[in-house]
Amino acid sequence: MTGQLNKRRAGVLLHISSLPNSGENGDFGQEAYNFINFLSDSGVTVWQTLPLGMPHGDGSPYQCLSAHAGNPAFISTQWVEDKGWLQTTELGTEECHKCHAGNAFGKSCLIAKAYSGFQSLANKEDKDGFEQFCKDKASWLDDFALFFSLKQEFGGKCWNQWPTSLKNRNTNAVKEATQRLKSLIESVKFEQFIFFKQWNELKSYAKERGVLLFGDIPIFVAYDSSDVWANRDVFKLDKNGDMSVVAGVPPDYFSETGQRWGNPHYDWNYLKKTGFKWWIDRIKTQNELFDVLRIDHFRGLESAWEIPENEDTAINGRWVVAPGKALLKAVLKKCTSISLVAEDLGIITDEVDALRNEFNLPGMKIMQFAFDGNPDNFYLPHNHVKNSVVYTGTHDNDTTLGWFNSINDDEKRRIYEYLGFSSLSMPSVLVGATLASVANLAIIPMQDILELDSEHRMNIPGTSEGNWHWRFEWSQLSEDKAKRLHHLIKLFGR
Questions:
Q1: pLDDT tens for residues 434-492?
Q2: Which residues contact 4 (CB under 8 A, 6 or more apart)?
Q3: Helix axes 138-153, 124-136, angle to 10 degrees
Q4: Residue 43: CB partners within 8 Å, gap ≥ 6?
């Protein structure tokens, strides 16, 4: 393990959307700072989140409209009001009260009003900052702002259903649309400026409190995204821009029929010819946002599961080799200070392990997968290695209490036998064992610290409804639970 993670640390997994808040989801406001204070006071030095991108309608942070742009729903509108960019006369109108509804649309409405105020009320430093942001991020921001504006103009339709000239990015059509939608495009850019500015302030505060921010990069991007619309050569698409194969994973312990994600696959030959520029640019954006980055579905960098587009499930696919070694060499050459973690779950081959080990990347150990009765199970604590990240479970698992409640008595006995017949109840006993591991980094989902059951699960892989909505409340964190976390972190030298 290199960089930031070469010492024993404890972390907590909690997405921004799960923070307490009066609106529909958590954001970068005061509660995010309160959470950093809780982490720091407990001795936790890593906060892991899910991807921060702008999701589609299902809310999944792993299917976003851009690999670079942030989710405006995470913007704190209170921060914008405190800047003075919203006129008090506007704030009192009925229309503006609708903007305060706390949902993504309401926030965008409010930020659009703030942009008008920004233009007339902001100081020179802020105006110069916005101008510099637009220049610095132009390589992706210009395409995204136009893409998002066109998507709104066409009622949210996927880009492959737009008029042909815009679908295919005809030069004259793009130029005309850029001029026609100029006001909306500027507002979208301003929204991204605010997102990055607020996040960077939060990151600076986390650094002051000794907390590293740990992010996640989905290996694939959504078909309906500015990335695919603006960079069709990067992906395996036909001349009409359609997919013949889609991404996913074969059947495994998460799903009997596998997972058909539906993302486009990469045209690795094209990417190699361009020195992996698209990938490097993407990682640079995330590396600026986070101190540590997890590559989701790392095994896809060695070989990825290609499913015919007309298949309803992921069963009938095939493994297709990817140039992970060349890609990682290119990334590490351009991003010399990056700290990467490999999400090496699922069907892992010797080749995938060899790729991860060649670059000395820590893999993941999931305690909920450990107790199948096989002493060689590499998720068991006695098989852990320092260069790894151990979890009770991830956002794709049930909560530890929910998982334990779902297994039979023999399995429960096996777990308690391995853990020395502890008198502690679940999930406390597994949290303790996770923090005791030799793995340098131990991550505990917030649900397990709060001792919550299956009703508080974040995601069920292979399903598209009812996920990503979980929120916590401070009232769930008793003084005893907070003290126990702090005690365990000190006890196990984290």
A1: 999 999 999 999 999 999 999 999 999 878 889 999 999 999 999 999 999 999 999 99
A2: 212, 291, 292, 339
A3: 90
A4: 10, 485, 486, 489, 490, 494
Residues 463-479: tens digit of each pLDDT: 888 999 999 999 999 99
Note whether 268 and 332 are within 8 A (CB). no
Q: How far apart are CA 400 and CA 290, in angstroms?
A: 27
Residues 6+ apart with CB under 8 A from 370: 377, 379, 380, 381
Non-local (6+) Cβ contacts of 342 within 8 A are 294, 295, 298, 356, 361, 362, 363, 364
Please answer whether residues 399 and 447 qualify as being in contact, where contact means their C-beta atoms are separated by less than 8 angstroms.
Answer: yes
Assign 3-class secondary structure to 444-481: EEHHHHCCCCHHHCCCCCCCCCCCCCCCCCHHHCCHHH
Report, as an integer, the average pLDDT of 66-88. 91
Catalytic residues: 296, 343, 396
What is the pLDDT averaged over residues 40-60? 96
Cβ within 8 Å of residue 256, ≥6 positions away:
none
Q: Is 481 exposed, middle or buried (0-12, 13-18, 19+ CB in 10 A)?
A: middle
Measure the CA–CA gap between 275 and 403, rounded to whole angstroms.
44
- Antiparallel, parallel or unpaired: β 340-342 and 441-445: unpaired
Q: Which residue is listed with tokens 């958590």?
A: 26
The structure tokens listed for 352 are: 């995938």
- Tell me how far apart the alpha carbons of residues 42 and 12 are, in angstroms, rounded to a whole number: 11
What percentage of the chain exceeds 70 in pLDDT? 96
Angle formed at CA 302 by CA 7 and CA 60, multiple of 5 degrees: 75
Our CA dihedral for 221, 222, 224, 226, rounded to 10 degrees, sits at -20
Residue 270 buriedness (CB in 10 A; 0-12 / 13-18 / 19+):
middle
Separation between Cα atoms, residue 277 and residue 279, nearest integer Å = 5
The tokens of 244 are what? 């013949």
Stated length of the chain = 494
Q: What is the pLDDT of residue 464?
A: 83
| Separation of alpha carbons 452 and 489, rounded Å | 20
C-alpha triplet 215, 321, 275: angle, nearest 5°: 65
User: Can you tell me the mean pLDDT for 209-213?
Assistant: 98
pLDDT digits (tens, 9 = 90+) for 231-283: 999 999 999 999 999 999 998 877 888 989 999 999 999 999 999 999 999 99
> Which DSSP string do the residues of 23-48 spell out, in sequence order?
SSS--SSHHHHHHHHHHHHHT--EEE
Coil, helix or strand at residue 78: helix
Which among 157, 146, 72 has a CA at the least distance from the CA of 115?
72
Cα–Cα dist 427/447, whole Å: 10
